[in-house]
Write a structure and sequence with these properties.
Elements: E1 2-6, H1 8-12, H2 21-38, E2 42-47, H3 48-55, H4 60-67, H5 69-72, E3 75-77, H6 81-90, H7 97-108, E4 113-115, H8 119-122, E5 132-134, H9 140-169, H10 171-182, H11 188-191, H12 201-204
Parallel strand pairs: 1-2, 1-4, 2-3, 4-5
């Protein structure tokens, strides 16, 4: 069974602003990957870097939802000298310390796939042989299927979700909740680019 590593950009994708079709598709594809993890298609690796970064997520509800995947993961990658050494080596391909350590965790854990929505990381894919750096969409076939799923499911999901909200919160608070969600224009992949930007790889590890 193949091991898979999701960085925090990927974990956060379903919570990001969905005005762009690419983000909506990546969010749906990420959810499909997690379904595959739950059904045993992939073995999920969770690392101390996932935990560190998630602890700095500015949104409590997102932090809690993402943190739940630690218990679902088959492997937990803890900090050690081997990861630090590999992370230091990866910095020579102009990766940020945080990204270098995430990739080092995936490599040391024996992962086959590293899933990210960060184009800066994906642009370094040629430097990696055994570890495949991929977006959640993974392939053109996945893109096609994901777009079909998004188009077919969104209207039905909105109707079912609104019914649940009204039943659970009442009509007025259901509308308040929708307003809160729709007003969030947050994009984690963009936000995290400056996270820990002044820290060295040794300080982060």
């Amino acid at each position: 069974m193949k091991k898979i590593y999701l960085d925090n950009c990927t974990y956060n994708r379903p919570f990001d602003d969905k005005d762009q079709l690419t983000i909506r598709m990546e969010a749906e594809a990420k959810l499909q990957i997690q379904e595959n993890v739950r059904s045993g298609v992939y073995e999920l690796v969770w690392s101390y870097m996932n935990e560190y970064e998630n602890n700095d997520n500015p949104y409590d509800e997102k932090r809690e939802a993402i943190g739940a995947w630690e218990k679902i993961a088959v492997y937990k990658c803890l900090p050690n000298e081997k990861i630090l050494e590999k992370g230091q080596q990866l910095q020579y391909v102009t990766l940020k310390p945080k990204d270098s350590l995430n990739l080092a965790c995936a490599i040391v854990s024996g992962c086959h796939y590293f899933i990210t929505t960060d184009k800066a990381i994906l642009g370094k894919a040629r430097f990696f042989q055994k570890l495949k750096l991929l977006t959640p969409l993974i392939s053109s076939e996945r893109k096609r299927k994901t777009m079909e799923a998004v188009i077919k499911s969104e209207n039905a999901l909105r109707i079912a979700g609104m019914r649940l909200l009204i039943n659970g919160l009442g009509a007025v608070n259901a509308e308040r909740f929708i307003h809160c969600v729709k007003s969030d224009r947050f994009d984690y992949t963009e936000w995290q680019r400056d996270l820990w930007k002044d820290k060295t790889i040794e300080e982060i590890n």
